[in-house]
């Protein structure tokens, strides 16, 4: 954890009544062509802080595991190890305990498999969105998750605000959907093995015991009817597993268009900003920041500070003008 945290600037003109992380100067509009996008509801001045939003979920790049805290992305000074794995570290006992109480208890023993699979960092964020919340968290929202909202403003529930971001499923080719479905099945299998679900899938205990039978015992089961019965059971999933699997697939689609890279600014000499560099260290999802559409001539700049994303205007804007963002950090 950071010993002395910098005070976050307040958003200009106070918080939006429905977009809690955004300024009340902003509004959200929608068209068929552009979807939802942020506009100026009131005049915006140069330098106004428009959004201060914590990441809903964030993952560190694997090649930064040895230099940055796995939980808060701070550079490591006196690393604290995980008691179960040796591939990553934390900056403090506080970060370690927070991670191990939530997502890391499911990811810990499978981290090498996840990295070795070659999956992208977006796939890991899709998994993190599930592992950082318990199974019951999603079961309590089952009804809201099965009916995707079309409201202009995202809901106040932070997960539902992420869940209702666009996926463009109807514009994807079958091959692309198949690849993402295959990845969702892989991630679901990892969750099953990690003990994420309170109730195992149908006959999972029996299937697991069958996998450990001696070879002769397995050969004795090769009658056609037994094989068909076994394959049918293996394909069965509980209602809870089907829900989480469908959410993983949705996460894999929406992150492609809504996630943001996390950068670290490195200043090699004191007060020499000309030699500073930005270094890509991770990926995060910010549901409010995701509502800003892209333009090569943006009106908003983004900065990361202590796990939060800050958006500031660098030009004055009149009412109803779009607030564009460029999909890179400055």
From TrEMBL:
InterPro entries: SET-MYND_domain_protein, SET_dom_sf
Molecular function, one GO term: methyltransferase activity
UniProt keyword annotation of Isomerase present: no
Keywords: Methyltransferase, S-adenosyl-L-methionine, Transferase
Gene Ontology biological process terms from the UniProt entry: methylation
Top-rank taxon: Eukaryota
Keyword S-adenosyl-L-methionine: yes
An example Gene Ontology CC term for this record: cytoplasm
UniProt-recorded name of the protein: SET and MYND domain-containing protein 4
């Amino acid at each position: 954890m950071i010993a002395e945290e910098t005070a976050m600037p307040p958003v200009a003109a106070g918080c939006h009544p429905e977009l809690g992380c955004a300024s009340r100067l902003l509004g959200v509009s929608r068209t068929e062509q552009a979807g939802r996008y942020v506009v100026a509801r009131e005049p915006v001045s140069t330098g106004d802080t428009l959004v201060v939003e914590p990441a809903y979920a964030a993952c560190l790049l694997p090649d930064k595991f040895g230099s940055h805290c796995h939980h808060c992305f701070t550079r490591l000074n006196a690393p604290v190890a995980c008691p179960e794995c040796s591939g990553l570290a934390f900056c403090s006992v506080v970060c370690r305990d927070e991670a191990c109480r939530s997502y890391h208890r499911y990811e810990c023993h499978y981290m090498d498999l996840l990295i070795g699979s070659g999956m992208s960092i977006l796939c890991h964020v899709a998994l993190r969105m599930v592992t950082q919340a318990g199974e019951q968290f999603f079961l309590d929202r089952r009804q809201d998750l099965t009916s995707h909202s079309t409201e202009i403003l995202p809901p106040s529930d932070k997960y539902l605000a992420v869940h209702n971001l666009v996926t463009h499923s109807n514009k994807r080719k079958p091959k692309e959907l198949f690849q993402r479905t295959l990845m969702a099945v892989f991630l679901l299998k990892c969750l099953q093995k990690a003990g994420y679900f309170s109730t195992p899938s149908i006959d999972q205990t029996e299937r697991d015991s069958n996998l450990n039978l001696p070879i002769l015992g397995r050969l004795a089961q090769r009658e056609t009817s037994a094989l068909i019965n076994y394959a049918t059971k293996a394909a069965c999933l509980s209602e809870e597993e089907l829900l989480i699997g469908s959410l993983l697939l949705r996460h894999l689609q929406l992150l492609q268009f809504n996630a943001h890279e996390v950068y670290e600014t490195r200043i090699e000499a004191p007060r020499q900003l000309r030699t500073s560099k930005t270094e890509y260290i991770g990926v995060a999802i910010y549901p409010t920041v995701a509502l800003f559409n892209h333009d090569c001539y943006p009106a908003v700049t983004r900065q990361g500070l202590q796990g939060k994303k800050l958006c500031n205007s660098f030009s004055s804007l009149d009412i109803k003008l779009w607030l564009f963002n460029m999909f890179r950090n400055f």
